[in-house]
Fold:
Amino acid sequence: MKCSARKILVALVVAVLVAAVGFAGGTKETDTIRIGVAGAHSGDLASYGLPTVNAAQIVAEVYNERGGINGRQIQLFIEDDVCQPEVAANIAAKLVGDRVVGVIGHICSGATLTALGTYLESGIVAISPSATTPTLTQSGDYPNFFRTIASDDAQAQMQVAFALDQLGARRIVVLHDRGDYGRGLAEFARDAINADGRGQVVLFDGVTPGAVDYSAIINRIEATNPDAIIYGGYHPEASRIVGQMRDRGMDTEFISGDGVKDDTFIQTAGPASEGVYATSPMDTTDNPLAVEAIRRHRDKFGEEPGPFFLNAYAAAISLFNAIEKAGSTDIDAIRAVLQSEFVDTPLGALRFDSRGDAEGVGFAMYQVQNGTYVELR
Structure:
């Protein structure tokens, strides 16, 4: 074989190898845009995670029908972390192996915190519709993290102001489920009560998640003769605590957060849920994009969307728009767009601040009235 022929052959082999490596790394222009969707998709908290899966699927379909992102189709990798930090760590590693370039999720703050370091090391942006622990953005440790929901410090301030100003409560019990989200929310509420000075925290304690009988903590609550209870945690425990309190004739006002503002709480607690208060993202269902998103959900799934659906829809739009505008899946390029350009979403026009929090989103107070949550104006 002549020298020139050998050079040509070598050049062809190198070109093939480079193309193969490029494809394996997910950088080939005709490859899909790989997006992870992580959260609780089974178990007690699935009602919080599955609406995010539905939102991501709908937004991805809308983009793909019009040609994808810069000519590349969106491919979703859906993973169930059951809202457990140890499972979330494995899910994060799996999604890195799947070569995702962004993640919509996780849902619970503890699971999110566990996964973020893995994503950061791999240059992956994560946008959560529901992880509210303030340190996720305020610590500055995770510049790859964004969220389309306000943080728990704002939520706790609203709960305390409502208890003091609207309910006239002065003796307040503050409970939590010992998890990152619930404990953090309760600590912010406790600190806000102490800082205000008008109220007194007569009991601050954690409950055992998954327990069936909460009579011991209810005995302690009853002994303090409180005006109100503020609870940080999720609906399975809240429904049992409220139900067992009402069974004993205790009509103490019960205030919780977005971890309880779910129809599953009402279904589980039954009549005992009546009158319960919960903070949750403001109702934006009259926004034209929200109207369209809800219609698409009804058409595709035959039912109303669940909690955080619109927040997840906004997260998907924000991520896909940032990749499209950046013309790249590079983390710095995506971050630059997220933090500099507004994008229209069902929550309104969103842009993220330097910490990763969405500007302009907030909480509202809801109450169970006649078996449904109603936003209080």
In short: The domain at 33-149+285-362 is CATH 3.40.50.2300 (Rossmann fold). The first strand starts at residue 33 and ends at 39. The radius of gyration is 23 Å.
